[in-house]
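// run 5 | inverse folding | seed 20
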């Protein structure tokens, strides 16, 4: 559900601004509107400083988790500067290593070059110019080239010939070969330079480890910078009145905390305020408050957007469907067990930050185990092959679930339409919901008539009086009463246009749910393929007649193929099972449920944790 908010229009004496904001920050209950803020040059620098320290903290937290110790001493008052310097040294050294390694690779075939002697020859007027050509070209042309130039072959063992042309340095050399830049360092010097760069990296990494022990200093600096940014944004977006002597702020608080906020504002000197309920025109911040189950799936909903204030939070409504869709797409009890185990491991080892993701994985994994069992699949093997389950009635996924997936889609779409209908009626009255009610009645009655025909209930089948009455009422709502403010002819025209759009849209929406069947089937087929491949390539498809040493290698080979194959399939299936249910939720369900996107979350001013 969406937490109810109260709006505060606050007027305060400008010199009291900092003290007042600090008092709000102490309570941690008031969100101040700063929409439309445009950062200045100094503000952008402040943002860069915050970003840099945030990244530094993430890096140092990871280093601290490794439990390394350092012999390097770092001044606790300049930890960030030491961190920045160390990172710069590491980046520069890695760049040097990449450049030097390329030179080593390039000059290894030339052998050791005495840079001192080549420099002495150059001083004496003797130039050495280095060329590379294909061995075939060199062999064909060496005789001709030697007539005009002094050529010394250095290395011709590989497919390329490396040679030197000796001259005065002023002559133009025209040969079918690529000239390369003369070396400035010998191989031994290049190797030593790489070692020196690696040593600089090692020292810098020790500095980073030492910084990790004092990362609290950076955390304190980051907290101070964030407070500065908050104050800057509030001051820049506040409305100034009375030649700047007064500031007008817009604030928000949860209705449940409004009495405490009232007491705080009443006790603030030189401050007046007006408290009111939000209006549809307000950019009201949104905070969600759900039960323990639905709260887990806020992780999915937040990837799209928060709902608009005054509408409905769809998280509790799509959560069960999402779990089911995930399980259908994965469609294997073995894969579900792996995800369940990973979720449980993350739940106990991942800490508080990973708790939501861990619970999400655990629930989806558990649902996948249940559905995979009924779908008769365990790592691509049929569960019904086990004697204990030979009489159990499993789902024939391949034959039956094509239609079932569309039925599930129709159910979710109707559920979304019902939510939209209730919310429209609640917000604007039943007269403004008659068009939507007509469509809901027509689709629901048609579905019930189809079911009635299948089970032999004639009184509500297609063509029955009861069905025709319901369908007729629905058509009246759809075509003649869809817009209360229009006349009957305009209503009919708009109704026809809506009919075309709704029919094509609903058909597309229902067909989208076939992806549940397609993804589940493809994952199951791949699992079967890997099983057959493992047994076929190792000769175990005919069973084990006699256990020998060779059988051990057959089993090891099959195990490797199964691990790699099922690992790839599990990875791909898990991604598909995460993404495609999300797509069905955000596109088909949200659209039919009338989801409206919010623009901002409720973020009260708080004391930054250092």
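// decoded
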């Amino acid at each position: 559900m969406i937490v109810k908010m109260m709006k505060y229009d606050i007027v305060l004496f400008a010199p009291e601004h900092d003290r007042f904001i600090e008092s709000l920050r102490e309570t941690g209950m008031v969100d101040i509107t700063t929409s439309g803020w445009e950062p200045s040059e100094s503000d952008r620098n402040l943002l860069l400083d915050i970003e840099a320290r945030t990244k530094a903290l993430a890096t140092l937290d990871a280093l601290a988790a490794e439990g390394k110790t350092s012999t390097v001493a770092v001044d606790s008052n300049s930890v960030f500067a030491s961190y920045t310097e160390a990172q710069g040294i590491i980046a520069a050294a890695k760049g040097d290593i990449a450049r030097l390694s390329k030179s080593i690779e390039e000059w290894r075939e030339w052998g050791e070059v005495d840079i001192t002697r080549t420099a002495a020859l150059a001083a004496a007027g003797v130039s050495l110019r280095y060329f590379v050509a294909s061995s075939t070209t060199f062999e064909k042309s060496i005789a001709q080239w030697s007539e005009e130039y002094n050529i010394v072959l250095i290395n011709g063992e590989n497919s390329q010939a490396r040679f030197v042309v000796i001259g005065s340095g002023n002559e133009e050399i025209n040969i079918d070969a690529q000239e390369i830049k003369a070396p400035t360092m010998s191989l031994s010097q290049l190797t030593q330079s790489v070692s020196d760069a690696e040593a600089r990296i090692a020292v810098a990494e020790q500095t980073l480890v030492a910084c990790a022990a004092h990362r609290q200093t950076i955390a304190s600096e980051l907290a101070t910078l964030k407070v500065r940014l908050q104050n800057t944004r509030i001051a820049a977006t506040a409305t100034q009145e009375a030649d700047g002597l007064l500031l007008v702020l817009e604030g928000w608080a949860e209705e449940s905390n409004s009495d405490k906020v009232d007491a705080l504002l009443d006790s603030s000197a030189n401050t007046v305020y007006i408290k009111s309920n939000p209006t549809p025109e307000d950019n009201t911040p949104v905070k969600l408050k759900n039960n323990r189950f639905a709260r887990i799936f806020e992780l999915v909903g937040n990837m799209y957007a928060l709902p608009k204030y005054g509408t409905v939070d769809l998280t509790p409504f799509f959560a069960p469907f999402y779990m089911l869709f995930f399980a259908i797409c994965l469609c294997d009890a073995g894969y579900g067990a792996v995800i369940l185990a990973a979720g449980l491991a993350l739940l106990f080892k991942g800490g508080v930050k990973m708790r939501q993701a861990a619970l999400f994985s655990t629930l989806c994994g558990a649902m996948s185990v249940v559905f995979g069992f009924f779908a008769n699949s365990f790592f691509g093997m049929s569960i019904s092959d086990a004697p204990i389950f030979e009489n159990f009635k499993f789902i024939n996924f391949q034959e039956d679930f094509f239609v079932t997936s569309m039925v599930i889609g129709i159910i979710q779409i109707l559920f979304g339409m019902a939510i939209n209908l209730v919310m429209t009626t609640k917000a604007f009255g039943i007269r403004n919901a008659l068009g939507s009610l007509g469509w809901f009645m027509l689709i629901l009655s048609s579905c019930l008539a189809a079911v009635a025909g299948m089970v032999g209930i004639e009184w509500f089948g297609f063509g029955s009086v009861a069905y025709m009455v319901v369908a007729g009422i629905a058509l009246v709502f759809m075509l003649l009463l869809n817009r209360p403010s229009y006349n009957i002819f305009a209503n009919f025209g708009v109704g026809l246009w809506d009919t075309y759009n709704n029919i094509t849209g609903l058909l597309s929406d229902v067909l989208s749910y076939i992806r549940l069947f397609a993804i589940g089937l493809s994952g199951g087929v791949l699992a079967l393929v890997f099983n057959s491949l493992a047994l076929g390539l190792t000769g175990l498809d005919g069973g084990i007649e006699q256990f020998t040493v060779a059988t051990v290698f057959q089993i090891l080979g099959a195990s490797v193929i199964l691990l790699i194959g099922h690992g790839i399939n599990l990875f791909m299936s898990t991604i598909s099972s995460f993404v495609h249910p999300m797509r069905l939720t955000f596109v088909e369900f949200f659209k039919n449920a009338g989801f409206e996107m919010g623009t901002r979350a409720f973020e009260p001013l708080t004391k930054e944790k250092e």
